[in-house]
């Protein structure tokens, strides 16, 4: 192959035509391409080069009219060389030794450059690929896409007296629905909807006044039992996921608890993005009973101070179009944040988190074309989660202070959210 590349003249167009039989014009043997200006076999190519270099002069032992074939081509060098020249082989096409060497050097240099490029190409280490595979599997084991367990929760109840906050959310939501259906399903419709949604949020804010200010002392929260069970279930799954993150189980029990208590709600918000639907701004977890809109969550005691930024967060996250690998890495990075309150072995957790961040950055470089800014955007999402967490804690606290509501919560929810480490 290399010899051909070195000594062959530019290939003729015929060479690319598979239908043209490649026959040596000198002897009729199978040709390997154009050599010194004619289609020949390797044997005749070598013969011509040697003859020209030696400046050989041959004499035909017969009558100078031998027919050259594959089998007899060695018998008469004179007629073979004459045939070479007759069909147009030219000694000018033979490279000098220096030219051959230069070509070989060039080929070698190209190979080395290619090897250098290959070495620089971003790649995932074996360990990083392994960690990612573990996290993806951990997520599959703890996130049931059929949502079949939801039927075991206390059932969702959407009727009941409408609170002021809930009615605002309802009008907000129905307006958002109307605007989206009139816009149709063009590719930009999602963006348009988000824009409309933002306008609606602003309208809501312009309305003035605090939504809870004039609310009845203790509104009936019809969705609280169901959503408390859903959150409790999700906490269990987050704990299951955390335990499978490489290194998590080796932390002290105290640190494991500190990390879980402070990050559980953030990881729940992250994982819920999988069911979040940009079309109607709801979380769709199976049938209509388990499709949750903003209004439903207000009926579990949360106000728009949490739900507005939460929905914005869900929209922004959804639009990053994360690969599953990136999604699970983000959850693990969130869980292993060393700056959580109550954490003792700060350095060790930081090391684990750094390892995950490196894996995420490497993954994006290798597998996410055009993802140059993706890592930064993902880290921004973690910052957004901190403020959502803060608002959630605030609202949870005021809810749990009311015994008729806190009695609806599960022991796990009370344990994880109940005594916020501060
Ligand atoms: Zn030949
Ligand atoms: Zn002859």
From TrEMBL:
Matching entries from Pfam families are given as: Hormone_recep, zf-C4
Q: Where is the Nuclear receptor domain?
A: 21-96
Q: Where is this region: Disordered?
A: 154-189
Q: Which domain of life is it from?
A: Eukaryota
Where does this protein have coiled-coil stretches? none
Q: Name one GO molecular function term.
A: zinc ion binding
Q: Which GO terms describe its biological process?
A: cell differentiation; heart jogging; heart looping; negative regulation of transcription by RNA polymerase II; positive regulation of transcription by RNA polymerase II
The record's section on Gene3D superfamilies has: Erythroid Transcription Factor GATA-1, subunit A (3.30.50.10), Retinoid X Receptor (1.10.565.10)
Q: Which family does it belong to?
A: Belongs to the nuclear hormone receptor family.
Per the entry, what this protein does is: Nuclear receptor for calcitriol, the active form of vitamin D3 which mediates the action of this vitamin on cells. Enters the nucleus upon vitamin D3 binding where it forms heterodimers with the retinoid X receptor/RXR. The VDR-RXR heterodimers bind to specific response elements on DNA and activate the transcription of vitamin D3-responsive target genes. Recruited to promoters via its interaction with BAZ1B/WSTF which mediates the interaction with acetylated histones, an essential step for VDR-promoter association. Plays a central role in calcium homeostasis.
Q: PANTHER family, alphabetically?
A: NUCLEAR HORMONE RECEPTOR, VITAMIN D3 RECEPTOR B
State the name under which the record lists this protein: Vitamin D receptor
Q: Which organism is it from?
A: Megalops atlanticus
